[in-house]
Amino acid sequence: MIQCEPNRIPPAIQAFCHRLADSAEDPVAAFIHDLDALRDRVRWLRSHLPDGVELYYAIKANSEAAILNTVAPWVDGFDLSSGGEVRKVIQHDLNRPFVLSGPGKLDSDLRLAIEAGVERVHIESLDEIRRLNGIAGDCGIRQRVLLRVNPLLPEPLSTKLSMAGQPTPFGIEERQLSEAVMRVDACEHLELGGFHVHAMSHQMDVERHRTLLDGLLDKWPVWQALAERPERVTELNVGGGMGVNYLGAEQFDWPALCRHLRQRLAWLPNPPLLRFEPGRFITAYCGYYLMQILDLKHNHGEDFAVCRGGTHHFRLPAAQGHDHPVVHLPRGAGRGNTERRVTVVGQLCTPKDVLARGVRLTEPRRGDLLVLPLAGAYGYNISHADFLCHPRPALHFIRTGAGRHNAAVGEGTA
Fold this sequence. Notes:
Elements: E1 2-3, H1 11-23, E2 29-34, H2 35-47, E3 53-58, H3 65-71, E4 77-80, H4 83-92, E5 98-100, H5 107-115, E6 120-123, H6 126-139, E7 143-150, E8 161-162, E9 172-173, H7 177-185, E10 190-196, E11 200-201, H8 206-224, E12 235-237, E13 250-251, H9 254-267, E14 273-276, H10 280-283, E15 287-299, E16 302-307, H11 316-320, E17 327-329, E18 339-345, E19 354-362, E20 369-372, E21 394-399, E22 407-413
Parallel strand pairs: 2-21, 3-4, 3-14, 4-5, 5-6, 6-7, 7-9, 7-10, 10-12, 12-14, 16-18
Antiparallel strand pairs: 1-13, 2-15, 8-11, 15-16, 15-20, 17-20, 18-19, 21-22
Helix pairs in contact: 2-3, 4-5, 5-6, 6-7, 8-9
C-alpha cells in the first residue's frame, strides 16, 4: 500500500487558511485546491501506466474550470455523464476528446454530445441502441460506441459501492450481450468499438482489483468474437473505482496495479486498448475544506464544535458514513495541553450535519480553524448547497509550488 498522511496539512495551505481568516469579516468556510499538487498527482498516475493504456478523468468528481484546465494536459480525455458536463467541457475548450456514459441519457444529451464531436458513447441498455442510432442518423454520422456490460463477478469482488456483478441500473447484463452486439451491428449509424465495465467503487485492495482486471481480460476475446467485424472491436474501458482511504494512512497501490497490468497485457496475443477513467483517485488528495469554530458546547455528555459551514458545503462524510479527518489550526497563543474530544458539526438545523466524531483537539477555542483534507472530490459538487440558504462556500485555487510562496490563481463563490 502507498502511505499518505491525511492529518498533515502542508505549511503553504496552513498559511493560506490563516490569511483567509485574517481578511474575512465573518468566520470562514471555504474550499482550497492546490493546483500544483493536482498536476503532480496526475503526472505521477500517468507515469506508471503501461503502453497501450489510456487515462481519462471522470469530471463528476470535480468539474471546476481550474481543475479541468490543470488536469487536461496530462490525461487522454474526459469521461462525461450528462449534457451539462458536455456543455462544461465545450465551454472551456479543453482540446481533449470525451466520452459520454451513464444511465438515463436524454435524447437532447445524445444529440448535444454528437454535435460536439463525442469520441465514444457508452450504451447502457438495449433501447438506448435504438435511440442513439436514430439520433446519429438525424445528425448524418456513424457514431462509434462501447457497450457497457454488467458482468457476472465472483462474490469476493464486491465493494462498499458495487456498480456491477449484481442488480444495478448500470449496463447491459452479460447474458444479453450477444443480442446487444447483434443489434449494434445491424444499425446503419452505429459502429461497435468495444466494451465498458465499471464494476466497483471505493476499492482499496489492489489484489482484488488485479483479479477484476484479469477476469475482464479473460472475457475480452469472448466478447470481441461476438461482433460481426471483431477486428474493429479494439477498446476495453475498465472504469475507475480505485479508492481513497479517508480513515488512515494506507492508500491504494497504483504502481503495483500498473506493474501487474504491464505483465498481463504482454502475455495477450491481441490485447485491447485499455482505458481507466478515475475521478476521485485523481483529485481527492489536492483539496481542503476549511471551517472556523463558532461555538463550543456540551450536551448530554458530549462536546460539540459548531462550525461555519457544514454538510451543505461538504456532504462527503455524511454520504459515505465516515468521520472525516480533521486538523486543528489554533488561533492565538496561551494554550495548555488539555485535550478535548469533540464532535465537529456545521450550522444546519439537523442532527445529521456531522463531519467527524471523537476528534481530539487541544484546548479548542471559538475562532480556531479546522481543516478537512482529502476534500478535492465529491465535496461541494454533491452537496445540498441551498438548504437553509446559507452562503455558498468560497472556492480558492492556489499554486504552492516547491520553494515558492503560495499565490492565489483563482477564487470565487460556488
